[in-house]
Design brief:
The protein is mainly beta and about 100 residues long. It folds into two domains: about 45 residues, no CATH class; about 45 residues, no CATH class. About 10% of the residues lie in helices and about 30% in strands. The protein contains one helix and seven strands; from the N terminus they run αβββββββ. The strands form three sheets. It has a three-stranded antiparallel sheet with strand order 4-5-6, with no helix packed on it. Strands 1-2 form a two-stranded antiparallel sheet. A hairpin with a 2-residue loop joins strand 4 and strand 5. The longest helix is centred in the N-terminal third of the chain and has 9 residues. It is elongated. The relative contact order is 0.13.
Length: about 100
């Protein structure tokens, strides 16, 4: 019985720390994952690449309100002297050219 208990303990997996390089080259949306450098980022959610590593983004400020769903696309529309800043959220496209309630 004692030898069975020793075998169970010795077969446990142990997590070891691993150092990962900071994504100094930034967010790579161009190359397939297998071809990326270790210093490329697949996702940079609330992080900014810096010379010595990465920095955390410091909070947020509300710009446009009243959008139904998370914003998936931001774009500008320019026609001559007419410019609009647009946001796609949910099933709609909103004019967010001015801060505040979206049109």
């Amino acid at each position: 019985m004692l030898s069975v208990a020793r075998r169970a303990v010795s077969s446990r997996r142990i997590a070891l720390p691993k150092t990962i390089a900071a994504p100094l080259l930034g967010w790579n949306t161009r190359d397939p994952f297998e071809a990326m450098e270790p210093t490329d980022a697949v996702l940079l959610d609330n992080w900014y690449p810096d010379f010595g590593g990465v920095s955390v983004r410091n909070g947020f400020r509300a710009y446009a309100t009243g959008l139904l769903g998370p914003v998936e696309t931001l774009a500008t529309f320019e026609s001559g002297r007419f410019n609009q800043f647009l946001a796609a959220a949910g099933q709609s496209i909103y004019d967010i050219s001015s801060p505040g309630a979206a049109a």
